[in-house]
């Protein structure tokens, strides 16, 4: 089974959490794309969707799904999205695709967050994947210096601007044993829009695609 097939297997298992004719939140990335395509292939009717990125909105629209603004919907019952890393407590690193801010907003507004990933994304301790941070452009150097003080090695994501008009710093070298505290500390740095650590609001369910099929992990 390839990594992509494992992503698709996880996405397919997430369909079990979708209630027809509801409004759901939909994440961004290659695993979320499988989920979107499977919703359409299985002809699952939805009242609407809240997209976590422009790219996801375009893909959903291409399949005929209605896009709603989060400000119109109130709380969502379900959010489905991928991740770059998960620890066993379902704390996540997200933002490899740059969509972390809108993803974190939709996750925060959702009752249940189902994370879908291939099995390689489950790690003991977060941090091998460089931690993405969305930053207001004029704060780039300041935030980078603050991240060095926290033990990280920041690097600017080149030729990339987020859907919100900001830059991304990818911070390597972190061994994140206390993700809740680190998320809070980074959130306090002036100029940080969002850190791609999802620990104050982790996933509720992690579905891992693996050669033997999809496995459901709960914290
Ligand atoms: O910004 C992107 C998102 O956080 C993605 O969910 C994450 O990067 C995982 O992407 P993929 O499903 O392509 O591995």
From TrEMBL:
UniProt cross-references to Pfam families, sorted A to Z: Rib_5-P_isom_A
Entries under CDD domains matching the protein: RPI_A (cd01398)
Keywords, sorted A to Z: Isomerase
GO cellular component: cytosol
Pathway: Carbohydrate degradation; pentose phosphate pathway; D-ribose 5-phosphate from D-ribulose 5-phosphate (non-oxidative stage): step 1/1
Role of this protein: Catalyzes the reversible conversion of ribose-5-phosphate to ribulose 5-phosphate.
UniProt name for this protein: Ribose-5-phosphate isomerase A
Organism field: Leucothrix pacifica
Gene coding for it: rpiA
């Amino acid at each position: 089974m390839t990594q992509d097939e494992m992503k698709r297997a996880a996405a397919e298992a997430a369909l079990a959490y979708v209630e027809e004719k509801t409004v759901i939140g939909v994440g961004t990335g290659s695993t979320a794309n499988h989920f979107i395509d499977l919703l359409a292939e299985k002809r699952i009717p939805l009242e609407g969707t809240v997209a976590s990125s422009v790219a996801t909105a375009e893909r959903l629209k291409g399949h005929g799904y209605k896009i709603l603004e989060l400000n119109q919907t109130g709380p969502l019952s379900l959010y489905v999205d991928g991740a770059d890393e998960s620890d066993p407590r379902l704390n996540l690193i997200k933002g490899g695709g740059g969509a972390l801010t809108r993803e974190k907003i939709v996750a925060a507004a959702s009752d249940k967050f189902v994370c879908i990933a291939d099995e390689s994304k489950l790690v003991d301790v977060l941090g091998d994947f460089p931690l993405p941070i969305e930053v207001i452009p004029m704060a780039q150097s300041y935030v980078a210096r603050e991240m060095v003080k926290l033990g990280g090695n920041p690097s600017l994501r080149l030729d990339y601007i987020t859907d919100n008009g900001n830059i991304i710093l990818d911070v390597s070298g972190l061994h994140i044993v206390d993700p809740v505290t680190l998320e809070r500390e980074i959130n306090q740095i002036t100029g940080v829009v969002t850190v791609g650590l999802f620990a104050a609001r982790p996933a509720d369910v992690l579905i891992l695609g693996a050669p033997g099929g999809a496995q459901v992990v709960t914290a």
